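Following up on my earlier thread - several people asked me to post the actual chain instead of describing it. Fair enough. Here it is, all 94 residues.
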Amino acid sequence: MLAAGWNLIGILLLAAVEVPGSGFNLEHMVFEQLSAFGTVGLSADVTSALSVAGKMWIIVTMFVGRLGPLTLATWVKSGRRPRVKYPEGRVMIG
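Reply from S.P.:
Thanks for posting it. Predicted structure:
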């Protein structure tokens, strides 16, 4: 669900940021987003023509796709301290 949500937001963001007359259609944006998330190295040869915001989103998507959305969600959520308290004591040896 996290991956699907991330990709849906990414496709909508790319569609909103890119200029309609620049020659991109929705298939190119979907392909670029899913390719960046999957870190497969494929491109529809439109990455270089993206706006700065589009390129930054693709970079962030590649990073999130590499780490995995569940890993990032766990990392963000784990900001609180663990509720485990270890005992302290001296061990006599010998």
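The mean pLDDT is 84. That should answer part of your original question.
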